[in-house]
Amino acid sequence: MLWRRERTSGEAPEPVDFALLAWLLATPAWANAKLLFGHSLAAALLGGGLLALTPANDEPLRPARAGLAGLLCGSAIAVEYTAVFAGPAIAIWLVWRERRRWKVLVAAALGTLPPIVGLALYHQAVFGKPWTTGYHRAEHAEFAAIHGRGLLGLQWPSLASVWEHLLSPWGGALVWCPLALLGLLAGVWAARTEPSPSSRARHGLFAAVGLSLFVVLLGLEQGGGWRVGPRYFVLALPLAVPGLVVLTRELAQRERLRGLGFALLLGLFGSSLVFEFLAANWFPHLIPHGNPLGDLLWPLALAGQRVHGLPIWLVGLTTVALVGLVLVRLGRASEHGIGPWLGGLAIAALIVTTQSLGPISEPDAEAELAAIRAIAEPDPEGRSPVSKVLRE
After folding, report:
1. CB neighbour list of residue 24: distance below 8 Å, 6 or more residues apart
2. pLDDT tens per residue, range 235-274
3. Beta-carbon contacts of residue 188 (< 8 Å; ≥ 6 apart)
4. Which of 146, 239, 283, 288 could form a disulfide with 210 if both were Cys (CB 3.0 to 4.6 A apart)?
């Protein structure tokens, strides 16, 4: 849906293909999709709902389409509670755009009711009250204490939460999805500068919802658990695609500063692609301490640790072919010479090297790596996995 919408909105195909590939392969979307957690499904539902709210080519929003959008966005909440924080931005945008068409507003509101009511009934049946969640019933003392602060662990951002969700080597957005943040910021700019009213409206909605979810992420006390990058931000990753299309289009034009920006864009894409490829295909559960690249992912890859699924050589060959095709087409469409491409390669190599060698490794990294390899399936030495019977 994103690919079709961006291509039919008048954008050149090359920036669209690059931006879509950056979301799919250069963010934690890759690893999370393979894990079958709810984050990717919630992202698809929320993104589909926002696309339904923004018809292409300045078409008016019909009530039936608004009802479908409400149903999709409400279903995202039923999959992942964090999606509820997209609601205020969507409501403000919708009232501002459709303030004289009450049928559209009513249809959108009614569309959200089936999944929300269903979720409330589930809570009533399982936890005793419509507004009581599983987090309220947590048995683990530390886990219950975290979710007992603020709104289920949501508070004002603190230094600890900003470090965890923005800068940490295992969960920081600037480490694992910098292109998504750039795409959302570019969306804010595009909401003011794009020539088409429908395009400005779409960029404004996507950027407002994505940045709202990012602010919520920074206030989350919850930070533990094995995952790749900021897992509660996976919900917002596809919302950065329209802005990233505009950013790629603008930086591909010939100017000295834009050439530097294009090199930085390529460097971030290349380094993120390496990180996400390693995490998605070897061990998509980063331990929340130490240096996940140097302590975990590179050792597993260099040791030839096999994984379930398609052969790694086939995954790698397919990835290289797809990325190569998109980059070649982007290179032909850009107005720059070879300089920004060499600069991007150097930036990517620098980021990968520095991130792999630092920060300081975890003292117990070797023991943790050995434990992970011992339980990995299939076992590299051909042993059968250990089976244990759990008794009360």
Report:
1. 30
2. 999 999 999 999 999 999 988 889 999 999 999 999 999 9
3. 203, 204, 207, 211, 243
4. 239
